[in-house]
Design brief:
single chain; mainly beta
Length: about 110
């Protein structure tokens, strides 16, 4: 893992993500303050973005020059994280466990 490049982070909580059936899921975004285009790491968790370990992961990666979107999920396909970013935001990565029934991270 790269060394931390900044302690100064911009955190946006409770970004509203509408699902096709009208349900709204929430996401938090962590990124270095004032940074230009960044790679994106999408972390998806079943209604647990507020948990300490998840928030810590967002901060850890953002301090190392990545934009991190931590999203509550359920059993649906979600493509908003990539579509909703401004053009030229850099690469994309995702990690986490896939729950039985098929949580999918769309590129």
């Amino acid at each position: 893992m790269p060394e931390a490049t900044t302690p100064d982070l911009e955190v946006t909580h409770d970004l509203r993500v509408p699902m096709p059936d009208g349900v709204v899921l929430l996401a938090d975004r962590y990124r270095p303050r004032g940074a230009g285009p960044l790679p994106v790491v999408l972390v998806r968790t079943p209604y647990g973005k507020h948990k300490f370990g998840v928030k810590g992961t967002g901060r850890l990666l953002a301090r190392r020059g990545m934009q991190v979107v931590v999203q509550n999920v359920r059993h649906v396909r979600i493509r908003w994280a990539v579509r909703g970013l401004p053009p030229g935001e850099g690469g994309r990565a995702g990690f986490g466990r896939l729950r039985q029934g098929g949580l999918a991270t769309a590129a």
